[in-house]
Amino acid sequence: MSTASEPTASQRFLDALIPVVGPLSAIRVAGRAQFQKSGFPTRRNEAWRFTDLKPLIDARFAPVAPSDDLAGLDEAVARHPAGVDRLVFANGRFDPSRSEIGAQVDGVILGAFANWALSHEAEATALFDLAGGAERALLSLNAAFFGDGLVLDVPAGVTLERPVHVLYWNQPVASHIKSLIRLGDGAKATVVQHFAGSGQGWTNLAETVELGAKAHLGLHTLQDEAAEALHTAHLTASIGARAELNAFRLDLGGRLSREDGVLTIAGENAVCGYSGAYLLSGRQEQAVASVIEHAVPRGRTHEVFKGCIADRAHGVFQGKIRVAPDAQKTDGYQLNKTILLGERASIDAKPELEIYADDVKCSHGATVGDLDETALFYLRSRGIPADIARHMLIKAFLVETVELIQHVPTRDLFAAAIADRLAGESP
User: Where are the domains of the chain?
Assistant: First the structure.
């Protein structure tokens, strides 16, 4: 895609999107103007050099489907566990009839972002960061076209006893989702996000996480969209003193899937756990591009991404841990491990450390290889068929990473999702 044709392609794409009427009209105008100025990122942008956005740029999306034409949504809702607060968003809009939110402690806000923004306009506007150029174009589009999303605001000292499960169901439409999770000092919560749907839709998520001192958040994302769907996400997180973020994402679906993460250790002795797993086949494209900023001393990061890639699928891991000059005593660990299951499967891995302090303990690495032939031979020698033996080894490899999820029911849920995906195909 040449630079000369970029504005034309971007304008054509912009004109094809359905205008959204809703709160924060000024930020919508600003987001549209910013995208018109920047256009899409290209491979000349360092953060996007391994990601091909052509499937997104060439896509055309239908108008939002009527709420009575949501085939498969009720089945997906029925599969959600009991004993949770459930929020359902269909084609980017809150669906109260399929949601189930129990009584909350005074001060807890749990609901739809669009409703919250109506009464918190200044706060909501501040969550949209339109600085930057083409590398942040999808954030500009999110600002221009956002429909709805989760808002969770937990006051200081409050622990949510029930996990929050959020189901985002998308059809062949463009759904721009804006989400806010904010925990006060000492607050605790677990949020599980499930992205699914049917057809060639596009989910574009912009998510802000703010953790006060000693807060603890488990944020776990299952991306299992339709095979031809497009999924892009941007996570911005700030972690206060002695707070802990335990974030994990499992990527199974989508023709094109990418998450950009900008996570900041903003308080001393904060812990950032940011990890994930991916299982790709066919011609899937999946990418994780993260920057974890250690801005203060004695922070700790643990980042592990592992995946299996089959057929002609392509994965990308671009992870950077940056340590500021004042961030002494930082402990940073980063690892990417990938198994290639086909001759044409590929991974671009670029782990990075950028360190400006001299009293730190940081390491990073990446490995790429095949399935362990010795282990495969051992299982075959015990009478286990080849395809089952392969699936057993793949599951064991990925579930080892899933064990990083601290919330046991969610850990089991994600392990089961991997088993279901393996049962439905032959990598």
Answer: 6-371
